[in-house]
Each structure stands twice: as structure tokens, then as C-alpha cells.
Design a protein that fits this description.
Order of helices and strands: HHHHHHHHHHHHHHHHHH
Distance between the termini: 59 Å
Number of domains: 2
Low-confidence stretches: none
Number of strands: 0
Mean pLDDT: 85
Number of helices: 18
Structural class: mainly alpha
Radius of gyration: 24 Å
Largest sheet: none
Helix content: 55-70%
């Protein structure tokens, strides 16, 4: 591929300062660094030798979502084909449904399920990627800086949090809001204090609640309705979940209606293993989120309530319902918007878990709490780090005072 390297090198003067395509250097740099590692080296101290760069970090996160992506395609098709079989439908009156039915609509066929579901997942993902990429390029050209790789991860995370039946124009609007308002207005990747993917999803939830919640948005079949476990629990507690006919193991494996990539706790935990093995995500945050959720749910179980069924929901059901597992593994561990001190990361995660259960239980009209919990905790993450650092300084000063400053 030396010819490609030589060709890119021959184009570089056109995009450098003084070249006639100077304004488009960000585009050239994006293509060049996508294909080859940057040749730049630091010329002054300090020097850091590490094989990990931003592209590799984003690549690992993207790879960690593969199990969730794979299961999103299969389960979306499986839920749709199962619903169609129950309704006696043999065809779908839409472009996506028609193409997705090339292998039939048999819910017992792996290929039919995967192919049908893929035609709901990939249009959503391509919409997010293309629209968000355009926003990134526009801001890069105006500001004169390189195109950041952060959106590579934001695009897949936002896609996996959306319901399969969402209209693509809503996907585009949510993407624009998440990228522009959630990140670019603060200066771009590394300078935002809110998670862009969750910011876009929150915008869609409050702007178009009918398309983001309720019983009719989780299965990609027009006219079909089916409640989620959280919605059923809010209405009738554990009896409501049992009435759906789905077991805890169904929720853990993921054979339930829900957002594209949030149904399978197993697939998400496989992704968590990849992130922890590669040291991309902080285990302290994950442990903190889990600890906060368990402690708060046990407290509500102990208190009890005769009017609110969510008080009785045990922590193992909180784990596998809604987007808790996905938020814990992929959203809360965002290295930009989470706390940066080791102690702060645990307490940041604990706050996320606490707020998730608090929102789910105290406000059963909004049973899914992980999204708002993470955004709320993002706001407090600098304060958490400040308290941790100041506490550390006070302890060191106290030790210095106790030994008379001998050290």
C-alpha cells in the first residue's frame, strides 16, 4: 500500500497552511490518520511511550459493543417475527420490512430473524453516523482543528439506546442535538461535561415521548403493543412482570422487547469484560454503579410501600431491566464526563446507581432512570473530584503536622 501513502503525501501540501485547500485540512487529516498512524512526535519533555492512542481506545470500545450489536439485530427481528406470527401477518408494508423479509418472517429461523432485525438497526446507525459526522466535520472546518474520533463511539452508543421503531428523521434530530449541544458548544471531544449520546437520547425522550416510550415502540411491527418489564413493574410490581410471560433469564439473555442494544445483559457483560481486560473502562465506576443500585434497592425493599409496587422490586431485577446494564458498562464509564480520581470514580458510580433506583421507584411514571442518573452525575463529577482532592490534601497536611514536618 506504499502507493497510497505516497499519494496522500503528494496531496498534503495542498491542505497545509498556504495551500489552496487549506480550509479543508481537517478532512485530509481525518482520512490520513484513519488509514495510517500519525507520524508526529513530541520534541520537548515530557515524553510518553504508550501503544494506546485515541483511535485505539475508540476502536476497543467499538469492538466491545459487537455482542450488543449482534444481539440487537437478532432480537429485533425475533421480536418482530414473533409478533407477526401472533397477528397472522405474512408481509410488512414498508421498505425496511419488505427488504428485511427476503428470508421470510419465521421466528424459528436464525437468518430470518437476524436479517429482518438488521434492516432496523443499520438504518438507525447509518443515520446517526452520517448526520453526526457531518456536524463534526462542519465544526472542525470552522474551528480549524482535526476531526475527533470520539463520535465514532458516540454514534454506536446512541444507536443502541434507541427503540427499533423510531423514525429516522427523529434519529437525525437527536444526533444533531447530542453532538452540537452536548459536545461541540463546549469545544468538542474532551471538553464536554455531558455524555453526548445520552444528551441526544434525553432530547428525543422529552421532545417526542410517544416515539421513545410506551407499549407500542419496542417491537418493529405496526399496531403491535407490548409492555416492558419496567412498565409492568411500575403498574403491578413483580406480578406485572410475571404476567408478561418473560422470566429473569429471558431478561438476562435478552429475548425481550426493548431498545435495540439494551435488552441482553449477557451481551453487555461480555462487552464489559472486553473493556476491563483492555483497561479502557474503570472497574471502580462499574462497581460503584452496581453498589449504589444494590444498596438503594435493598433500602427501598426494607422500607416497603402499600401504594408503590416499585419499592418491592429486588436488585437482581433492576440489573436486567431497562438500560441499567448498558448504562453501567458503556455510558457511566465515559472517561470525559465521569470523575477522574480513583476514589471519585467509585462515588460517581455509586451516585449513578443510587439515582437510577431513586428515579425508578420515586417516580414510577418514569420507570427508566439510568439515563437521567448519568446526566445528573455528569454535572457533579467535577465536584466529586474536587472533594476527593481536597480531602487528600487535608490528610497529607495533617500527617505533616503530626510528625512536626520531619519528612
Amino acid at each position: 500500500m506504499s502507493w497510497l501513502r505516497n499519494y496522500l503525501d503528494s496531496l498534503e501540501p495542498l491542505f497545509e497552511r498556504g495551500g489552496r485547500l487549506e480550509k479543508f485540512y481537517a478532512l485530509y487529516e481525518m482520512v490520513d490518520t484513519l488509514l495510517y498512524s500519525p507520524p508526529d512526535t513530541t520534541r520537548a519533555a515530557p515524553h510518553v511511550r504508550d501503544s494506546m492512542d485515541l483511535k485505539r481506545v475508540m476502536g476497543y470500545v467499538w469492538m466491545a459493543t459487537f455482542p450488543a450489536i449482534f444481539f440487537a439485530c437478532y432480537n429485533t427481528g425475533y421480536q418482530a417475527n414473533t409478533a407477526m406470527a401472533g397477528l397472522g401477518l405474512t408481509e410488512v408494508d414498508s421498505v425496511r420490512g419488505a427488504i428485511g423479509g427476503w428470508f421470510g418472517y419465521n421466528p424459528d429461523s436464525f437468518i430470518a430473524n437476524f436479517w429482518h432485525g438488521a434492516w432496523y438497526f443499520f438504518p438507525v446507525y447509518l443515520t446517526v453516523f452520517i448526520v453526526g459526522g457531518i456536524c463534526e466535520v462542519i465544526f472542525s472546518l470552522v474551528r480549524g482543528h482535526e476531526v475527533n474520533e470520539g463520535f465514532f463511539v458516540t454514534s454506536i452508543l446512541l444507536s443502541l439506546t434507541l427503540p427499533p421503531s423510531i423514525p429516522l428523521w427523529m434519529v437525525a434530530l437527536g444526533t444533531i442535538f447530542g453532538v452540537v449541544i452536548g459536545k461541540e458548544v463546549f469545544g468538542g471531544t474532551g471538553k464536554n461535561f455531558l455524555n453526548p449520546a445520552l444528551t441526544g437520547r434525553a432530547f428525543l425522550y422529552f421532545a417526542y415521548p410517544a416515539a421513545m416510550s410506551g407499549d407500542a415502540v419496542w417491537t418493529a411491527v405496526d399496531g403491535y403493543t407490548g409492555a416492558t418489564a419496567l412498565g409492568a413493574a411500575a403498574a403491578d410490581g413483580l406480578n406485572g412482570i410475571a404476567a408478561l410471560g418473560f422470566t429473569w433469564w429471558d431478561h438476562f439473555i435478552g429475548f425481550i422487547p426493548g431498545s435495540l442494544g439494551e435488552t441482553s445483559t449477557l451481551a453487555i457483560l461480555i462487552g464489559a469484560g472486553i473493556l476491563l481486560y483492555t483497561r479502557i473502562a474503570s472497574w471502580r465506576i462499574m462497581v460503584g454503579v452496581l453498589a449504589g443500585m444494590v444498596a438503594t434497592s435493598l433500602l427501598f425493599n426494607l422500607i416497603g410501600s402499600d401504594t408503590n409496587n416499585m419499592f418491592a422490586m429486588p436488585f437482581w431485577w433492576h440489573l436486567v431491566t431497562g438500560g441499567f446494564a448498558f448504562g453501567m458498562v458503556f455510558m457511566a464509564t465515559d472517561p470525559v464526563t465521569a470523575s477522574h480520581t480513583n476514589t471519585g470514580r467509585f462515588w460517581f458510580g455509586f451516585l449513578v446507581g443510587l439515582m437510577t433506583v431513586l428515579i425508578r421507584v420515586a417516580n414510577p411514571a418514569f420507570p427508566e432512570g439510568i439515563m437521567l442518573a448519568i446526566l445528573f452525575s455528569n454535572i457533579f463529577s467535577p465536584l466529586i473530584d474536587y472533594v476527593v482532592v481536597q480531602s487528600s490534601i487535608k490528610r497529607r497536611m495533617a500527617r505533616l503536622g503530626s510528625d512536626g514536618g520531619a519528612s
